[in-house]
Design a protein that fits this description.
The complex is a heterodimer of chains A (about 140) and B (about 60). Chain A has one helix and 13 strands; from the N terminus they run βββββββαββββββ. Chain A has one helix at about 60-65; strands at about 5-10, 10-15, 25-30, 30-40, 40-45, 45-50, 60, 75-80, 85-100, 100-110, 115-120, 130-135, 140. In chain A, the strands form three sheets. In chain A, strands 4, 5, 6, 7, 8, 9, 10 and 11 form an eight-stranded mixed β-sheet that branches. Chain A has a three-stranded antiparallel β-sheet with strand order 1-13-12, with no helix packed on it. In chain A, strands 2-3 form a two-stranded antiparallel ribbon. In chain A, strand 2 and strand 3 (about 25-30) form a beta hairpin. The N and C termini of chain A lie close together (about 10 Å). A three-stranded antiparallel β-sheet of chain B has the order 2-1-3, with helices on one face. In chain B, a hairpin with a 5-residue loop joins strand 1 (about 15-20) and strand 2. Chain B is globular and about 35 Å long. The chains are: A mainly beta (about 140), B alpha+beta (about 60). Chains A and B meet through strand 2, strand 3, strand 4, strand 6 and helix 1 of A and helix 1 and strand 3 of B.
Chain lengths: ~140, ~60
């Protein structure tokens, strides 16, 4: 692991439209990074995940887990989102791959989740610091 | 306003982007179906991404 190394990721631009007129208003920049996950030696495609400091855990679409051979049948839990939205999720131990680095961690998987989220327990806990640089639109991840 | 974003036209779909994020090579609303479309592409050459509708505000 690269001690004290900081890797910067550029925010990713997404368009925004007026909800009433459908007219494009510009872009919003989100702290999204490309990761892979693996389970039992099978690795996923690279996929975008939102670095979400408000999320307690990692939460991924269940299909991303099924693709690497994870079976979701038993021992689900309920994960609560903004506004009290509830989703059924399965916690699994996985490897998370970021660039050339791999981490043993765990993630919740849900059939009701579309956007992969990287949360505090299982992602932020892997690093010394994560710095959201809003003005520059960069995310700095500092390794332990 | 001129918006030049490769994700326009793919709202509510999963897309497979080139690794430089400049081009969408395949898209489908169902991730499982998208996986079938990209079977022939090397894993490191693309990034899968879900495109949220642009006319909403999100709190994840």
């Amino acid at each position: 692991m690269p001690q004290n190394k900081i890797i910067s990721f550029s925010y990713v631009p997404y368009s925004i439209k007026d909800p009433n007129t459908g007219v494009y208003l510009g872009e919003i920049f989100r702290p999204i990074i490309a990761i892979n996950i693996s389970f039992g030696g099978v690795i996923s495609h690279t996929f975008d995940a939102l670095v979400d400091s408000g999320s307690d855990t990692n939460l991924f679409p269940a299909r991303l887990g099924e693709y690497i051979g994870i079976n979701f049948k038993n021992n689900f839990k309920i994960v609560y989102g903004i506004g009290g939205v509830k989703v059924k999720a399965y916690t699994k131990k996985i490897k998370l791959h970021l660039l050339n680095f791999s981490f043993d961690t765990e993630a919740d998987f849900s059939y009701e989740q579309q956007i992969p989220l990287l949360g505090r327990n299982g992602f932020f806990t892997l690093f010394k610091s994560i710095n959201f640089k809003e003005e520059e639109r960069f995310l700095d991840i500092e390794f332990n | 306003m001129q918006i030049n974003n490769p994700l326009i036209g793919y709202e509510n779909k999963w897309v497979a982007l080139t690794s430089d994020r400049k081009k969408v090579v395949a898209a489908h609303k169902d991730l499982k179906e998208l996986e079938k479309k990209i079977k022939h592409i090397k894993k490191g050459d693309i990034i899968l991404s879900f495109v949220l509708p642009f006319n909403r505000t999100y709190s994840f």
